[in-house]
Structures are given as C-alpha cells and as structure tokens.
Amino acid sequence: MKLEVLTISDNRKIQNTIIAKIRDLINYKNLEPGDKLPSERMLSDKFEVSRSNVRDAIQKLEFYGLLKSIPQSGTFVANIGVVAMNGMIEDILRLESPDFKSLVETRILLELKTVRLAALRRNDDDLINIKEALDAYEAKALLGEDAVQEDLLFHLAIAKASRNSTMNTFMLTITPQIIIDFEKYHVCDKDQAVKGIKEHTEIYEAIKAQKPDLAKEKMKDHFSVLYQYCYSLK
Amino acid sequence: MKLEVLTISDNRKIQNTIIAKIRDLINYKNLEPGDKLPSERMLSDKFEVSRSNVRDAIQKLEFYGLLKSIPQSGTFVANIGVVAMNGMIEDILRLESPDFKSLVETRILLELKTVRLAALRRNDDDLINIKEALDAYEAKALLGEDAVQEDLLFHLAIAKASRNSTMNTFMLTITPQIIIDFEKYHVCDKDQAVKGIKEHTEIYEAIKAQKPDLAKEKMKDHFSVLYQYCYSLK
DNA sequence: CATTTTTAACTGGTTAACCAAAAATTATTG
DNA sequence: CAATAATTTTTGGTTAACCAGTTAAAAATG
C-alpha cells in the first residue's frame, strides 16, 4: 500500500491562511497577553471557513504555546508579548517539512548529549531497559534480519534515561521519519548491523559504568558512518 | 486573566486510553506497516468513545508519524514495524510535560549548534534578519524595558539562519514556554539586559564574519549565567 | 468466462445542531 | 441602593447527520 500526500498541502494552506488571519486580528485589535480571542463561531463566520478549520488552526497555535483554549470560557492569547507572537507565527507559517539531512544532523546532536546525560543520571531501571533493547537488537542482528527498529529503540531507551523530557520528546518526534528514511535509502546494511552490536554494547557499558565522556565517544564512533553519509548528501 | 489547566489531564487521560487501545488493536490484529486501521466510526463504536476523541488520538499518533490518514480512504499504519510502534507508543503514553530545567538544557544544546551552523550557512538575507532582531532588542533594552521577547526573537533568527528545519522547529516549540518561565522566575533583570546587548552584538559579528567556532564561544559566554542558573535548580 | 461498466457501500472530512459549564445580565431582596 | 439570587447568553466541546471521493462488489457486455 502506497501512502500519498496529496491533500496535506491543501490542508496546510487553508490552516496557514487562518493562522495568518488570527495573527492579523490580534494585531488589529491590539490583543494583549491574557486577552480573549473572539469565539470560534465568530471567527469561522468572519473568516468564512468552517469551525473545524478554525479549531484546527487554534489547536496548532496551542501546540506552539501561543494560544490557550479553556472549555466554556474562550480562547486566550498566551503570556508572551505581541512581538514574540508575530515573530513566532511568521516562523510557523514558513516552516518547511524536515529534510533527511536536517533530521540526522539533529539526531546526532541530541544523542551525543542524551548519552552523556544517561551515563550521569541513569538509575537501575533505566539500565535494565537499555539492556533489554540491546539484547533485542543483538538477537535480530545476529539472525541477519532487518533490525532498524530495534536499533532505534535502543537509542530511545538512552534518551529516556537522560531524564530530559524535552530531548526525549524530540527524539520521539524524529524517530519514525528516520526509520522510514533509513529503510528507504538502505542506510543500514547487514554487516553494519553486526558491527552495530559491538558499538551498542560499548555504549551500554559506558552508561553502566557511569562514564559520560566515554559514552559520548562511543556514540560518536557509532555515528561516524552516519555522520559521513549525512554530510556527503550535499 | 489567569489561565487554568484543569481539563487537560482529563483530556490527555481519555486520549491516552484510546491510543493504548489502538496499540492493542494493532497488536491483536497483527496489523503490519501499510495496513488499514478500522474506520473512525468502528473504533469510536468499539472503544465506546466519541468519534472526535478517536480523531484526536489518531491525529496525535499522526503527529508522531505512526499513523497516516488519507481522506475518503482510511487510516494506515506507518511504515515502521510493530516493535518500534509498540516502543514508541509506550514512550508517548508516558511522556511528561517538560520542566524548566529540561527546556533550558535543551535550548543551550540546540543554540550552541544553530549558532555554529548559522555562521557557516547564513546568507545575506539571514544576516539582515538577525541584525533587525538585534536592533529591536537593543532599542528595548536601552530603554530599560522588558526585552525578553526581542531577546528570544534574536535567537530564533539565528535558528532560522542555521538552515536546519528540524532544529528551527524545535526552537520554536520551546520558545513560548521559555518566555513564560523567564518572566515568571525573573531570569533576566535590567543590568543583564544591557550586558546582553554586547553579547548579542558579538554573536552577530561572529556570524557575519562566518566564524563558527567564535560564534559558538560567544554564545557560550552569553549562556554562562543561564547555564549556572539551570544547574543550580536541583 | 474475462473485461468493462455500473452501482452500492464505505471512508475521512465537514457541517450544523446540541450540551454543560462559565459569564454576563437581570430580577429579587434586605 | 448594594448584595444576592435567578435567569439568559455565550463558550468550547460533543454528537450526529451529511458530503465528496474512493473502493469494492455487482451487473452488463463481448
């Protein structure tokens, strides 16, 4: 089954139009932090779009912390000023979907940090989780089967042990696309999988021994191929 | 106007319940990548929740790249395997809201990279944007007014110039909460704002001169207070 | 019987009516 | 006239009916 992405551009377009209109409204009416936006009904009426579309746009701005909806009360402008509001909405409207290179670049940055933090902060439960992920990866890789998923679950287990919820969330958001791209571009082949077992084990041992610098170095080694691949793309 | 956060826990709870049920369904029915999920109507019927709730849950899983909805066709399991699917849903269900320390820690990590990339990749337009943000900050800070917003817009302009869409998005997602926390904890006081002008200018000059290492160093200096603040929290 | 055409059922998305809680307004009361 | 109580209006959230496109089944055709 092939997954098409036809309607997304249309959907984003109308959503972005509404977001821009909300921005204009905030500016025109000089709405300050904490002020109430017109009701969803009024907005859908004013903008001549469906209330669902208005709700979706509000939800997106809520995700970025710019608005806050309160049931049976209203939608409110967040406690950031008009300047930041305008700047951020501008950026949100221009956001492009992440390319592979940008994803990998970010992943390497994040993981060199999470592995360090994991070595510093991990508790015994974290260690067990990481070990389980490592074993699952090893089992799959030794069989010569595709182990991209188990690979990334190992890395996610480390991110979890870093005790940094923001980095953990970020890792979660980029992982699915990375898996898809990896399988698409065949980034990981068989012999790399076996090589990966050793590298993973070394990373695990460094975290277990609570040696942050060593853990980071081992992760760096592990990423060397990916690093080159990433920067050879363009 | 005070913004309460009462309903969120309830909303998340029911949404997470549905996500867990979708996970169980995928496992029970052995749905593989590309397979079609039962229709929203069937799910809302089976789970005994409203179709809106089902749609919201699907939307969240879509955000994390685990599902894909196609109009007039169905909702499909993404091209990642069951192992990654289970692991990621597990993590998503356990995701906690980001604490201030985790936000700042992540921000410092991201910005030490984006400023480097910006120095390497910035074009003339990027430079103009950064300069404008710098001037706006300077004007506000010299007047002794609160310039937290202009401060962060300067940093967002750098993130934009880094030409890494993923990091740019991540910076956007954490910025509003950082602004709110900064104003809440009064992280930036008056004399720091004036000191900030010099630091911002130095960062700008390094980016202009396309000296990545210098830019990173200047950003590090700029963050030194914040860094200490962050790690003194606990 | 294979192939094409037509029809019916099903899909996610949209719309409009409805709900309960919160605000705002009006009426009542001391 | 101020303070309280009752009522109406307004709100985001929910529900159910509807829409247009897709998909699968059935019928027609050679």
TrEMBL record, chains A, B:
InterPro entries: GntR_C, TF_FadR/GntR_C, Tscrpt_reg_HTH_GntR, WH-like_DNA-bd_sf, WH_DNA-bd_sf. It holds the Pfam family GntR. It comes from the Bacteria. CDD domains: WHTH_GntR (cd07377). The keyword Transcription applies. SUPFAM superfamilies: GntR ligand-binding domain-like (SSF48008), Winged helix' DNA-binding domain (SSF46785). This is FadR family transcriptional regulator. The lineage of its organism: Bacteria, Pseudomonadati, Bacteroidota, Flavobacteriia, Flavobacteriales.
